[in-house]
Design brief:
The chain is mainly α. It is 63% helix and 11% strand. It contains 4 helices and 2 strands, in the order αααββα. Helix 1 crosses helix 4 and helix 2 packs across helix 3. It starts with a helix and ends in a 5-residue tail after the last helix.
């Protein structure tokens, strides 16, 4: 991944994780695996876990500790109402930005 790709991904990764959770709850490792399956192969688990903790503190996700057969309980993350509203705003902002960028790319922003 190039430096530019990494920087652009940093600004959108929170929304990407919330979008991943919009379908169904998941553990941090499962979220990382989903993202990798979708082509985000360079995303580190530690980055996902750090963002999940931040989103939990901001009240965007609910966390339920689920017993694990192998070790301590695992944290199951699910998108709550506040997180859904944030995700909706993320998609609106994404649409706005992509439309403007496409105009600039086509030379219509002059």
């Amino acid at each position: 991944m190039t430096k530019l790709e990494t920087e652009m991904l940093k600004g959108t990764l929170e929304g990407i994780i919330l979008a991943s959770l919009s379908g169904r709850p998941a553990y941090g490792y499962e979220i990382t695996a989903r993202l990798r399956e979708q082509g985000f192969s360079d995303i580190a688990e530690g980055t996902v876990y750090a963002l999940l903790l931040r989103m939990e503190k901001r009240g965007l996700v609910d966390v339920e500790k689920v017993p694990s057969e192998k070790g301590p309980p695992r944290k199951m993350h699910s998108l709550n109402t506040r997180g859904r509203k944030y995700l909706e705003e993320f998609w609106k902002t994404w649409s706005f930005l992509t439309e403007r960028l496409e105009q600039l790319r086509k030379g219509e922003g002059k």
